[in-house]
Amino acid sequence: MREVYFIKQNKEKWLGIEQVIQGKIKKNPDDLSSLYINLINDLSFAQTYYPKSNTTVYLNHLSSQIFQKIYKTKRVEENRILYFFKTEVPLLVYQYRRYLLYAFLFFILFTLIGVLSAVYDKEFATIILGEGYVNETIENIKKGNAVGVYQQGSTWGSTIGIIFNNIGVGAKLYIYGVFAGVGTLYALLSNSVMLGSFQYFFYDYGALKDSARGIWLHGVFEIFSMVVEAMCGLILGASILFPRTFSRFNSFKNGFKDSFKIFLSTIPFTICAGIIEGYVTRHALKMPLMLNLIIIFGSLAIIGFYYFVYPTIVHKKLNNQINDAVL
């Protein structure tokens, strides 16, 4: 059978399956299973006769999505939160992985802008960070306590304030994506430039090592989460700019649903960052250096694995299950 005829013969069925996946058409578990088996037959045929075709890629993607829907339906009685973090979010991160790459590239670029701005303009850090903060920190550095600013207030009071502040920053990075992604990039620019100038400020005063021992205890979770939240904003913006075959409203609705789930996954990391900043960072310079390094690189390993490595593992596992079903 020619591929064009194969597509023409099954196009309406595949579009109907897309509507089921999007929730526009409701199906019970038995009907979902029938659709899945039918689709697997089409995928098997396409893999045999059109192995390198876009049709095969499309059917494989469609099969993955409907398999997820069936799997989710079967697992609904189990721990929904566990499923959300263990399977649903990683698959979404894998699906939108290029936006995570874009977010990191913009973050690195904007941070370098902050560093270079501070290098060529000695007053830049004061403008960005505020004169009061800069003067206080200079005094702390002279006293040999570069992280003194983190020792103010009570531990629990600081922690609560920090957590809500960081969630607010993350929400802006995400929600500003409705302005076609430009709002997200502006928010990311503001925060990244601040980080770059902030780090160079400590370097300029010879306290970069001490500041890094303290700042990155909580900064790994905080900054990495910020980049993922920017990723969510870019997904939201792209859903408006590039609706593909959907109406712009439906594209936005799908983009919002997916990006909001990824955004929610950053909240536990943001809370952890606030707890570390409120309770641990104030003791950074009194702690053994090895303990600082274990917390910093341990945090990086955890969040890096979750957003960069684990999504690929989950995706491959799902593909293997689909291939087993085909065979």
TrEMBL record:
Residue ranges crossing the lipid bilayer per the database entry: 99-120, 173-203, 215-242, 262-280, 289-309
Keyword entries, A-Z: Membrane, Transmembrane, Transmembrane helix
Protein's UniProt keywords contain Transmembrane: yes
Transmembrane helix found in the keyword field: yes
Alphabetical list of InterPro entries matching this protein: SpoIIM-like (IPR002798)
Signal peptide: none
Protein name: Membrane protein SpoIIM required for sporulation
Organism: Chryseobacterium daecheongense
Lineage: Bacteria, Pseudomonadati, Bacteroidota, Flavobacteriia, Flavobacteriales
